[in-house]
Design brief:
FAD/NAD(P)-binding domain, binds flavin-adenine dinucleotide
């Protein structure tokens, strides 16, 4: 069936994948060939959990191709170095990163800047609850939880994240997420909002610098990500057993949910965990004093789960494709979640635009666009998913000998060998770490 009018494209989700798809399709598709509508259940990008994203080179290049890389640079912070410190506070390794192509952004700022590049309507407060076949399966209707009228599309791009409606509906067996045994408290420290304005020495230069720093303690790992303009994202990672132990040591039930904790309780848990990590001059602990509001969305506990990449990220019978976390939710261990979502969206849009430019029909959408996209991405997703799962050892309390992952830059075995060699040369042997005592 030929398209006698514009292709109606619905994009479900205004996260990195959905917004990149909207921008890229508008750049690539022949003029007048598509009508794009973006739907999102939240009223603002600030409603969604997530503080800081690393936009890595593969995503920056994808954004560059659609002339959107300045959206990441505008308020983002260039990353030029990643450093790893062991539990004695000694630096084990430092990697150089090209700051032109690696940027740390605050999610809400980046998504606002990205959305400003799109002329497509972005309908917020649209909570999709089902995707239904229409027109004999050639199109789809999306229906909404609040009962407002359904919308019909020739193609639905499901970029609706880890709890994707499309994934649950069309891939129920793959809708499970896997608990990877650890959590991290993420928090944003902003010196302009610090309660008494007294900065720990060195804070500003770290927050405005370009170094991501991994620091191990005996049971916790802290990672800081400079966000520029006096802001620093801090992640405090620990495994489930440690979590139960620490919760109890603070007088809480071992399974008390983060959302039920008071600001005071959250602060004392974070301090207990941060105190385990030998940051420079006690800065990891001191940075916590700069958090103004412990119950704000900028302070949250991220319980680490991932999902298997879909072998075929599209439905067999309906014109629905899945991108980003909907197709593969990553752990943050290699900082790939947002980057892959962006890259997926740019590549998918390019394949679709080529199809339209060549006079492609709706009947060929599956073979010429959806399958091609899936074939193109599968290997990348599987490779990076393996690395992200291997890199859990960087966040939990295993020893360096059990695997030290520098990915996505260096293969796991090379990273482990490098660190082992370095430790031997320095005459230090890392012992299996204690549990939270
Ligand atoms: C709790 C949590 C915290 C995280 N924190 C970080 C972090 O600090 N740093 C980091 O790098 N990564 C973080 N991530 C991962 C990161 O958010 C994702 O990898 C990345 O955002 C994936 O982009 P995406 O566009 O595929 O999906 P998402 O960013 O998840 O976007 C999906 C969009 O779809 C919308 N949506 C979902 N369901 C519906 C529906 N039924 N109807 C309408 N709209 C819908 C959502 O509102 C959302 O805007 C976090 C993830 C979680 C779950």
């Amino acid at each position: 069936m030929r398209l006698d009018s514009k292709m109606q494209v619905g994009i479900l989700g205004a996260g990195p994948a959905g917004l990149t798809a909207a921008v890229a399709l508008q750049r690539y598709a022949p003029p007048g060939s598509v009508d794009i509508t973006v739907l999102d259940r939240y009223n603002s990008s600030a409603d969604y959990p997530g503080v800081e994203y690393g936009i890595q080179a593969r995503a920056m290049r994808a954004l560059h191709r659609v002339r959107a890389d300045d959206a990441a640079r505008r308020r983002g912070n260039p990353v030029d170095r990643i450093e790893f410190y062991n539990r004695n506070g000694h630096r084990q390794l430092a990697l150089r990163v090209d700051p032109r192509w690696s940027i740390g952004v605050l999610r809400r700022e980046f998504l606002t800047d990205l959305a400003s590049l799109s002329a497509a309507p972005l309908l917020r407060g649209h909570d999709v609850n089902a995707i239904v076949a229409a027109d004999g399966g050639r199109r789809v209707d999306v229906t909404f939880a609040d009962g407002q009228p359904a919308r019909r599309f020739d193609l639905l791009v499901a970029a609706d994240g880890v709890q994707s409606v499309a994934r649950r509906q069309f891939f129920p067996a793959d809708a499970v997420t896997h608990d990877r045994g650890f959590s991290a408290i993420y928090l944003l420290v902003d010196e302009t909002k610090a309660p008494d304005g007294n900065m720990p020495p060195g804070f500003s230069s770290i927050a405005n610098g370009g170094t991501i720093r991994f620091m191990r303690g005996s049971f916790a790992t802290a990672v800081w990500f400079p966000a520029g303009n006096g802001r620093l994202t801090l992640a405090l990672g620990f495994d489930h057993a440690t979590r139960a132990h620490i919760w109890v040591s603070q007088g809480l039930p071992p399974d008390a949910a983060w959302q039920n904790l008071s600001g005071v309780q959250r602060r004392s848990l974070a301090r207990r965990i941060a105190a385990d990590v030998p940051g420079p001059g006690g800065l990891v602990v001191q940075a916590l004093d700069l958090v103004e509001d412990w119950v704000s969305p900028d302070v949250y506990l991220w319980s680490m789960r991932d999902s298997d990449p879909l072998a075929q990220p599209y439905t067999a019978g309906l014109p629905v494709v899945l991108l980003g976390d909907a197709a593969h939710a990553f752990l943050p261990t290699i900082g790939m979640g947002a980057s892959l979502a962006i890259e997926d969206a740019e590549i998918f849009s390019r394949i679709l635009a080529r199809h339209l430019a060549g006079g492609g029909t709706l009947d060929e959408l599956h073979t010429k666009v959806l399958q091609r996209f899936g074939d193109h991405r599968r290997g990348v997703w599987l490779d990076l998913m393996t690395r992200a799962r291997d890199a859990v050892t960087n966040w939990r309390h295993e020893t360096v000998e059990q695997g030290f992952v520098l990915s996505p830059f260096v293969p796991t075995r090379v990273g482990s060998a490098l660190v082992r060699g370095y430790e031997q040369v320095r005459g230090r042997t890392l012992t299996p770490t204690d549990h939270a005592a």
